[in-house]
Amino acid sequence: MLIKKLCITAILCFGGVVSAQAADQIHNFNFNEAVDRAVADGFLDGSVKFYLDGTKSGGQVVQKGLVTNKKTNGFAKKAETACDHVLRSALIQFQNTAKAKGANAVTNIVSFYKSNESKNSTTYECAKGTAVAAVALKGDIVKF
Description:
By secondary structure, this protein is α+β, with helices and mostly antiparallel strands. It has helices at about 1-20, 30-40, 80-100; strands at about 25-30, 50, 60-75, 105-110, 125-130, 130-144. Strands 1, 2, 3, 4, 5 and 6 form a six-stranded mixed beta sheet that branches. The chain is globular, with a radius of gyration of 19 Å.
């Protein structure tokens, strides 16, 4: 009976440590630098431009409030590496949607993690936990 109690206690303690470590940490990384890397590496073709909220306006809005929510394996990866990768996935989705709708830009981009809008004119938010990194963005598809 004592061994059983010790095992249960150990499992509960270990489970508490794992769940505490698994909590997402919010990181902010430079948006334009990440976009430039994605274009330079060939993940984005450069035909669609990306603008954070407050950095570009105008054009004809083709679709307002498009949301993308991407996740990637973040296990044993540095936050910036995992976040850069998952941002590329989100931007690829925006690029493909814009091109399919005859548009050439995504404007008013804001971070939208867990449906919480966070505006910044230079950085994007990425949530990084022990095993997963996530980027959620909301923006308008625009034709200039």
